[in-house]
Amino acid sequence: MKASRICIALCAAIFLLALAGSIHLLHPAQATIVEIVQDGKTLYTFDLSGQVEKERIEIRCAEGNNVIYIGPEGICVESADCADQTCVNMGYLQSSALSIVCLPHKLVIRYADGAAQSDGAAQVDGVSE
How many alpha carbons lie under 13 Å from residue 111 in its C-beta half-sphere? Predict the structure, then answer.
């Protein structure tokens, strides 16, 4: 009897932690600066806070093409010629924790980190020996 109560309490705690983590991940982004990165290099940077005009950008690479829509609603991949269409189905970029990614075309649309470098180089968080 005691073991079943412990198991129920443990399951409830795991459920609540998962729920809190989901809420944190899906919380709308506070940032307004978005960057479009392909193969580790930043191609475009936009401020969505004042975006009133609708704009489409076509990004071409050896693997294929993506059409990016930017408007008052936000930013999304409008069309792509990749097989799985995951990037198109992701919809508008809404959370800084979740980026729009097109793996076949090595394309990432994400909210810019305040400390991000414009040349796309990776930053070092720590050193391990």
Answer: 17
